[in-house]
């Protein structure tokens, strides 16, 4: 499935915490790269922090700008530039019926995991777990080529490499993302059904104790009992500091009683070289 082609229009917004003023050059680089790839770019009113607050606008305003893109027949993909803590504020304001029929695909990572999964839970529409700011990061040249090959080209069955920790096969619709943010949806109408799904998990901050706690919550929600497999992305702080027990050990231990397949990739997560995975879309690993 080719997600974008030359001449298409994309939108930029910030549904979570607004960007700081000093990040304006990063946005400029992203726009420059997108236009150099032959894409047209529309920007939302809600990108940067406003009124001395950490938000790019009120929850209603952020949701309205997002819906403006979903309702725009020209917009093919929506790239969220933000991250942080506040994306779940907008969920009650979204029109999921309109999102379901929109041709636009939402794209974001980190705190935007709440939006990715809510969109699938309420509209059965896939989203893309990808950080568009990587186009202006340390691996900008490599990311531009990946964007051109995968998002604007015919993608390979799996755009990332992985290794098996348990088992050798998993197949199902992918849900999840940032583990902390995914769990914000627990107990709400925005939490997706985990039955038969592949659970994708990654994290930026947090040590072994925090990850153990979050994994325990997932287990107490019966996520690991119901799922078809677990795909681990990068857990940045744990891996950088080589904290023990490792994320691999923690996940293998808590899922042992279910004998669920577990795989690990270093190409999905918060790294500047990270690739993308579709949330709410089928994936087969073997």
UniProtKB/TrEMBL annotation:
- What keywords sit in the KW lines? Carboxypeptidase, Hydrolase, Protease, Serine protease
Q: Which family does it belong to?
A: Belongs to the peptidase S66 family.
Q: Which residues cross the membrane?
A: none
Query: What start-end ranges are recorded for coiled-coil regions in this protein?
Result: none
Q: Provide any one GO MF term from the record.
A: serine-type peptidase activity
One biological process GO term for this chain? proteolysis
- The leader peptide range reads none
UniProt-listed SUPFAM superfamilies: Class I glutamine amidotransferase-like (SSF52317), LD-carboxypeptidase A C-terminal domain-like (SSF141986)
**What's the source species for this entry?**
Sporolactobacillus shoreae
- Identify the residues that the record assigns to the LD-carboxypeptidase C-terminal domain, covering every copy: 171-284
The name this protein carries in UniProt is LD-carboxypeptidase
Has the keyword Protease been applied to this entry? yes
The LD-carboxypeptidase N-terminal domain, residue ranges? 10-129
Instruction: Indicate the residues that form the catalytic site.
Output: 110 (nucleophile), 202 (charge relay system), 270 (charge relay system)
């Amino acid at each position: 499935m080719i997600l974008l082609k030359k001449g298409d229009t994309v939108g930029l917004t910030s549904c979570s915490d607004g960007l700081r003023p000093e990040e304006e050059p990063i946005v400029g680089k992203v726009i420059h790269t997108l236009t150099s790839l032959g894409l047209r770019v529309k920007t939302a009113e809600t990108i940067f922090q406003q009124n001395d607050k950490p938000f790019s606008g009120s929850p209603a305003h952020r949701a309205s700008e997002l819906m403006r893109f979903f309702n725009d027949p020209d917009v093919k993909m929506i790239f969220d530039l933000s991250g942080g803590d506040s994306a779940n504020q907008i969920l009650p304001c979204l029109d999921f019926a309109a999102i379901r029929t929109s041709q636009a695909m939402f794209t974001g990572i980190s705190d935007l995991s709440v939006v990715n999964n809510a969109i699938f839970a309420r509209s059965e529409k896939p989203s893309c777990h990808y950080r568009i700011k990587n186009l202006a990061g340390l691996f900008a040249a490599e990311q531009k080529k990946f964007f051109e090959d995968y998002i604007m080209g015919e993608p390979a069955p799996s755009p990332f490499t992985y290794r098996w920790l348990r088992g050798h096969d998993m197949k199902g619709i992918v849900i999840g993302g940032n583990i902390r943010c995914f769990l914000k949806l627990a107990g709400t109408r925005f939490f997706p059904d985990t039955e038969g799904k592949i659970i994708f998990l990654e994290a930026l901050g947090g040590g072994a104790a925090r990850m153990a706690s979050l994994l325990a919550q997932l287990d107490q929600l019966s996520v690991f009992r119901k799922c078809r497999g677990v795909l681990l992305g990068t857990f940045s702080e744990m891996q950088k500091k080589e904290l023990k027990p490792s994320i691999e050990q923690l996940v293998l231990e808590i899922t042992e009683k279910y004998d669920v397949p577990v795989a690990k990739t270093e190409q999905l997560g918060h790294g500047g070289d990270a690739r993308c995975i579709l949330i709410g879309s089928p994936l087969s690993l073997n």
